[in-house]
């Protein structure tokens, strides 16, 4: 079967190689299902794995792609899930843990379903389980037109929050408005700290959803409200901040870490319940994956390069 492989670490556009590899077969004692890939969503962890910088690093060579919509080979059931590396989603076939394969929402096509699981589960657990977002509160979302951020904007709006979206550039600003953000701040044109204070009458944001880190996090500490909550989702900006805990003490805000993958082992029932609720919201038209581009299989390296450069609007999805 055709697949993309990473034989050495480096930038995705430089190291990805097209290869003809055997169809993966579940090993003895493994509770896995073989899946024909219908669409593979590109994620920032794919970039970090290519670079050798992610906390989970499969042995070389491996096939990247941590999220998919596929068809179970034996039953034909349409599912969403996370492949078991080193057999990633950028291939014709992969394998998925049986208990980590969820029914694909009927309301979403293959590309939309491929980008559904990680972004919306992360958003749901971040906003509801960690931050306890309440109706009427103000939610600040960084990288609001990206894959993770766009999901948080929609989920915040669905929860009855007032959403302030921070983006980089006019195309992303337009996307954030279309998602339902109440206030959109282009960080290239405005100081987002001043904009948040102005939009909230000086009070600040009750909840900050930050998948960027670096300057986004530092600025957030200056515009988070009294007893606000900053949810640390990731570090797409490339810099891991060192929080000044005396500042958190003086200003009475909470810093909340979010590693959604841990819920898969620590509370799988909550993950399953979350998927049912998100599927319901998709069926109602309340949430829908923002697809920036549907890419042919040959364009996967270029897509990962755009993702790494922060140029993508919404999800980039590869159709094998």
TrEMBL record:
InterPro entries: ADH-like_C, ADH-like_N, ER, GroES-like_sf, NAD(P)-bd_dom_sf, Zn-ADH-like_protein. Residues 11-318 form the Enoyl reductase (ER) domain. Gene3D superfamilies: Medium-chain alcohol dehydrogenases, catalytic domain, NAD(P)-binding Rossmann-like Domain. This is NADPH:quinone oxidoreductase family protein.
